[in-house]
Specification:
The chain is of the alpha+beta class. The protein has one domain. It is 29% helix and 10% strand. It contains four helices and four strands, in the order H-H-E-H-E-H-E-E. Helix 3 links the parallel strand 1 and strand 2. The relative contact order is 0.18. The model has no long low-confidence stretch (mean pLDDT 91).
Length: 120
């Protein structure tokens, strides 16, 4: 879970360029670390998971997607509302939990809505 505060900011200040605009996120340079640590999934409160605009001059809109999904098998969650979870974790002083977020079983799909549950 990567909570940048971007979703909360959009709610507070207006959506403007939330979907498609500049955003904090995961760097393309993190791909090696993600692979070495065998992280199974990453979810963020941003619209696109990775930092925007791109950090490098590459012919790709979201290069980390193109590396992490097919080559690492990383499951990506975007636009997650992590504010309440962050508040509860801070109150408890615990930031580890079981997360269940199964996708819908859609044959041939590359994305699905989910109903995530964090068990603290």
């Amino acid at each position: 879970m990567v909570r940048t505060g971007r979703l909360a900011r959009a709610r507070r200040e207006g959506w403007n360029d939330y979907a498609g605009g500049s955003a904090a996120g995961i760097s393309l340079t993190a791909a090696g670390w993600i692979h070495r640590t065998e992280i199974a999934a990453i979810a963020t409160d941003t619209w696109g998971f990775e930092v925007r605009p791109n950090e490098f001059d590459v012919p790709s809109f979201q290069p980390l997607h193109q590396v992490a999904i097919p080559n690492i098998g990383l499951t990506i969650g975007e636009m997650w509302d992590l504010d309440e979870l962050g508040t509860v974790c801070a109150e408890l002083g615990r930031f580890e939990f079981l997360l269940s977020a199964p996708p819908l079983p859609i044959t041939g799909a590359v994305g699905s809505p989910i109903n995530p549950v964090a068990v603290l």
